[in-house]
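Annotators were shown the component list below and the corresponding predicted structure, then asked to write short factual statements about the assembly.
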Amino acid sequence: MGDGPSEMIMLMTGLIVAGLVSAVLLSTWDTISDGLENQGELEVQDAKTRASLISDPSSISWDNTLDRSFIYIQNSGTISLNIDDTYVFLDGNAMTVTAIDAESVTWSKGVAIKFQIDATTDLTFTDNTECFLTVGVSSLSTSPTGTYSLTEVVRLDV
Amino acid sequence: MAGSSVAGMIVGTVFIVIFASATITLIDNVNRAQEASEVELPSPELTLVSADWTWDGAAGEGSMVYTITNSGTETVNIAHIYLSKDGNDPFSCSTLTWDSSPAIYIFPGETIVATESGLDASDDDIDDNPQTVFLAVFEYSLAVSVT
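Structure shown to annotators:
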């Protein structure tokens, strides 16, 4: 009985310390878990988001007067893509991208979209110029948004 | 003495349950993070066996006969296959007239033949004698010379 109060104090102290340590550990654990969950969902969305160039890369038409070209991009992933979130770089130059005849079209798996790409500055190429074409796409779903970009060497038919 | 031991056991058990639950959640999320590597993307493999061009001088138009074999292991929807001649606009194979009906899919090992007729320079923006045909389906592509 004489040991009772000190024993209770020790027990209570131990429980408080254990509780505090547990709270810190669980908080850290929860942060790691949430991070893994978010990262996992993002990686899955990224893996499902794909696109490919179906225009002949050996002959991409280019108009030096209008600074314009047309390319066809196919959704080669497994989820729908956001047409309005497509971006294109030609030879390192950011292009203005306009989807052609794509109103009320869902860019689902296998569907190809024609894009008009216009240079924002004057770009003059010679015939058979070989340069890099980079196309970036995003998934239609936004929780989270999957992204993908492809880069191909193309030969310009001026 | 006995009371504090029982209290300690109860609290310890509660902690164990909480940590076990957190561990299960953590393992679930680790497994979910690994799902990205399990995503199966389309990986068709086709062979454009030939593209045969015939020009009818009297009619002033030509026709192209495409022979395509599914040399992969996936069944491919014809609508997902795109062809283009000499770098011109690609068109879906579903717009062609196929020699078999219904021709919606090409199964592994199957060869199908399609004809594109009524081609001339003015209507189709191609030379009268196209040189190459480019086939693309998802991330697979190839080109052949026209014969």
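Statements collected:
1. Residues 46-145 of chain B form a domain with the Immunoglobulin-like fold (CATH 2.60.40.10).
2. Strands of chain B lie at 46-56, 61-70, 76-77, 82-85, 91-92, 97-98, 105-106, 111-119, 132-137, 140-145.
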